[in-house]
Design a protein that fits this description.
single chain, mainly beta, 4 domains, 4-stranded antiparallel sheet, 2 helices, 8% helix
């Protein structure tokens, strides 16, 4: 045989038998395929072209795979299966029943011990069970909607906020710049919050804690606005802890601290109570007295409330028949002295005295002899200007004290 022909045949066979390397990769579904030339055929030689191509491809795909020890990060979004609550899409090796899964279109949920505890949809999030927040909640609504809605079912409370150990505030809410409301709390009807549902219930902390603290917006916002439920519902129940206030409201620049109205408006013939005090008094201590020339239409201030009044019987043993803010009564040198339980400045109030059931002959008039800090002295005179001994004659006298304090 011609040697040249043999050499050419070998070279041509090698050229024809050689296939250039083809690098495999995963398809869009993530399925990996080996490069061309695989699988290998038994009893054939291992060639560099096959070995280098296959091992290089395997090296590339191993590098593109996630490492169980967390070495390297994803270079594209990680796609999960839908999963179920019993077998979540993203779960944990030590607790397979805890994790996240897709319940439907735009519906993602979290399960704990195969129990659904929270879900997210296009309309928001729903939490099942109790939510504990250590560092507070900030809710901002950019449009005219409601930032936070909470409904208590049965005997449950929608939101329970406790003030901290010292000077803590359970909930602080600030209304929007316009007429926005920081919190809208509605007591449940018979099918929602139960009969006598409470719109907002605040318990102040142990020391000076505030149950509910509302600040009105800078324009006409109210610090708090509450409406009772349909059946005996209470708009606000506030219980202050220690020396804390049950409800503390501070109005905005042009708004009042609190606004209350009866469910049915009062009329001229039918009256309604906007505010009821179940146990305690209305205190105006700390409120500044208005100047005498300030218009005071339908206003209650420290200057225009009665500071003390009494119904007295004079004579050798004078007595207090009725009244308030009276510590004791005595009579000396024809003058009745009334000692107040709460002393008042002698130059800041005015007293008015009169008979309510005069006995004895002649026209009589009463007058204030002395107004001093801590007491009032009452004198009686006849029309002729002759004094009558109030320490020996029985008379029935009334007096009233008003003025700024």
């Amino acid at each position: 045989m011609n040697k040249l022909a043999v050499v050419l045949g070998v070279v041509l066979g090698a050229i024809i038998g050689y296939t250039s390397p083809t690098w495999a990769s995963r398809n869009d579904a993530g399925t990996y395929s080996l490069p061309a030339g695989n699988p290998v055929v038994a009893n054939t030689k291992i060639t560099a072209s096959w070995g280098n191509t296959t091992l290089g491809d395997v090296r590339t795909e191993l590098t593109n795979s996630l490492d169980r020890n967390g070495r390297g990060a994803m270079l594209a979004p990680l796609q999960l299966s839908n999963g179920t609550c019993a077998a979540p899409s993203l779960t944990f090796g030590s607790q397979a029943g805890m994790g996240v899964y897709r319940a439907g279109t735009s519906d993602m949920r979290v399960c704990m011990a195969t129990n659904e505890i929270q879900k997210w949809t296009t309309t928001g999030t729903t939490i099942t069970g109790t939510e504990t927040v250590s560092n507070g909640i900030i809710v901002t609504k950019s449009s005219s909607g409601i930032g936070l809605t909470s409904t208590g079912n049965g005997g449950a409370s929608g939101i329970t906020a406790y003030g901290g150990e010292i000077d803590g505030t359970g909930m602080t809410s600030t209304g929007g710049g316009g007429a926005g409301k920081g919190v809208i709390a509605i007591g449940g009807a018979s099918t929602d919050g139960g009969v006598s549902g409470i719109g907002a219930y605040g318990t102040g902390g142990g020391t000076n804690g505030i149950g509910i603290y509302g600040i009105g917006g800078s324009s006409t916002g109210s610090g708090g606005q509450f409406s009772g439920g349909a059946s005996s519902g209470i708009g606000v129940v506030g219980t202050g802890g220690g020396t804390g206030y049950g409800v503390y409201g501070t109005g905005g620049a042009l708004a009042v601290g609190g606004y209350f109205s009866h469910g049915t408006a009062a009329t001229a013939s039918v009256r309604k109570d906007a505010v009821a005090l179940g146990n305690g008094d209305l205190s105006l201590n700390g409120v500044a007295n208005p100047n005498s020339n300030i218009a005071m239409l339908n206003r209650l201030t420290p200057a225009n409330i009665i500071k003390a009044w009494g119904k007295l019987t004079t004579g050798a043993s004078p007595s207090i028949d009725d009244g308030f803010n009276i510590a004791s009564i005595s009579c000396t040198s024809n003058i009745i002295r009334v000692n107040y339980a709460q002393a008042m400045g002698g130059t800041t109030y005015a007293s008015m005295v009169n008979f309510w059931n005069s006995t004895g002959a002649g026209d009589k008039s009463l007058m204030t002899c002395t107004e001093a800090t801590g007491y009032l002295e009452i004198c009686e005179y006849t029309a002729a200007g002759v004094g009558v001994d109030l320490c020996s004659v029985t008379q029935h006298v009334t007096f009233m004290v008003v003025g700024a304090q």
